[in-house]
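Hi C.,

You asked whether I'd gotten around to modeling the 291-residue construct. I have! Everything is below, sequence then structure, no commentary in between.
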Amino acid sequence: MKLAHIINPVNFTKGSEHERAQLITLESLYRAQDYASKRGVEVRLLSAQFPEDRKVVPDWMEATRDLKTSSLDYPEFLDKRKLPLISDIIERGIESIKDEEALIYSNIDIALQPYFYVRVAEKLKEGNNALSITRRTIPENLTSLEEMYAQVGSKHPGDDCFVFAYNSFDKLNLKPVFVGAAWFDRILLLNCAAFCHPFEKIRDEQLTFHLGDDRSWFNEKTRTVASSNKDYLIELISEIEAEQGYCPNNSTLWPHVMSIYDKLGFVVERNHQSFFTRVNQKIKRTFSRSK
C-alpha cells in the first residue's frame, strides 16, 4: 500500500518547546517511514509551509507549493501567530497525490510510533475510508525517542491525526478554519463521520504521542480565532443536518458528534427538527418581529 502524509512545519524560535516538539515529530516520521518501507508500505512525506518556513523542511520531505492565506490576514484576530487554514494544507496534500491510496494529516507536535503507517495500512485494508487517531500524552521530561516509544501514556480527548482514503477526497467540506486554535479538529472529525463511511475513531491504541498536555492553543488571545472556527463548525453542522437529518437521530453520525453538541451547549432533543431548520425558523421569527 502507498500512503502520503502531510504536515505543517514552522520555523520556530531556536530552543523553544515548540521547536523541540517539532524535531521529535520529524525524527519519528522519518523512522516510521523507514519501518514501513521494510514491511511493504510506501510513504511519501509532504510539507505544507509558508515561504519563510521552507528552511526547516528536511531534504527527505517533499515541500508542496507555499501556503498564502493566514490568520494574520484578519486584523480582528488578537492572536498574532501566523496560522494556516486546514483546508489549504489538505488541498496541498490532495493535489500532490500520485498513486497513493490515502492522505494522512497530523499536527506538527504529534509524534508517531515506528509501526504507525503499517497499522494505518491495516485499518484501510479493513475497508475504512477515514480514521481519526487520538494521541497518548506522555511525560515531557523524556529525552530520547526510545524512552518515548516505551511510554503507554494517558488518553487524550482531542483529535489531532486524520486519515482520508483517496475515494473520500472529493466529499470533504473543510471550511476556512485555522489550525492551532480550538474547533478546527472538529471540522475534520465531522467530515470523517458525515462523508467518509465507513469511518473509525481509534482511541485506545498506542500509535501517536505528545509530550505533556500544556494546551497552549487555548488562551485569551486564541479565543477570537477559535470563535471564528466555532462559527464555521456550526455552519457545517447545519449543512450536514440539512442533507442528512438531525444529528442525534443519525445512529452513524451521532456517536462522533455527541461531544461537539455538549461543548457547543446544544440541547439534545430526540425526534427534534434539525439544527438547520431551527436556525431558519429563528431568523424568520426575528424578521417578522422587525416588520
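If it helps when you're writing up: The helical segments are 17-37, 86-95, 116-125, 145-150, 184-195, 223-244, 254-264, 275-290.

Thanks,
B.
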